[in-house]
Amino acid sequence: MNRLMVNIVVADVAKSAAFYEALFGFQRAFDSDWFCNLQQPNKGGAELGIMKRGHDIVPPHLASTPGSTYLTIVADDVETVFEAATKAGHVITEPPTNMFYGQRRMLLHDPDGYLIDISSPTVAG
User: Fold this and answer.
1) Which of 26, 41, 66, 78 has the smallest CB count inside 10 Å?
2) Which residues pair with 7 in a beta bridge?
3) What is the number of other CB atoms lying within 10 angstroms of the CB of residue 56?
């Protein structure tokens, strides 16, 4: 495998890209009115594709709202993301909580309703 990238389908590409850039430090590697590729070149090649809902390239059955998918982003410190998200006015679904499996997790939704799980290890693995 050369590369793994998740694509999400959104109403407003620029708005969604700005959300992921501001909270998670992604950078635009490619940008157009219908698609944006976000990358974190210094973080192991993490990539996120953002596609405009209704564009011809998007399979028709993916044109509706998000389904049974959520993104997990492992951060150095969940509290830092929580503070930034709160300051920016994003609605937090679940504040940072210690989980039984050794991580501290928070949940929030992006501008298009995708559930984002932000986690940080609480114990050395």
Assistant:
1) 41
2) 49
3) 7
Q: Give the tens place of pLDDT for each residue, 22-32.
A: 999 999 999 99
Distant-in-sequence, close-in-space partners of 42: CB < 8 Å, separation ≥ 6: none
Token readout for 4 is: 């793994």
The alpha carbons of the chain give a radius of gyration, in whole angstroms, of: 15
Give the chain's end-to-end CA distance (angstroms, integer).
26
Contact yes or no for 13/51 (Cβ under 8 A)? yes
Cα dihedral across residues 4, 10, 14, 20: positive or negative: negative
Is residue 118 classed exposed, middle or buried when 0-12, 13-18 and 19+ CB atoms within 10 A define those classes?
A: buried
Three-state DSSP state, 112? coil
Show the domains of the chain with their CATH numbers.
Answer: 6-121 (3.10.180.10)
Distance CA 116, CA 48 (A): 13
Q: At residue 70, what is the residue type? A: Y
What tens digit of pLDDT does each residue of 43-55 get?
777 899 999 988 8
Whether the pTM exceeds 0.85: the reply is: no
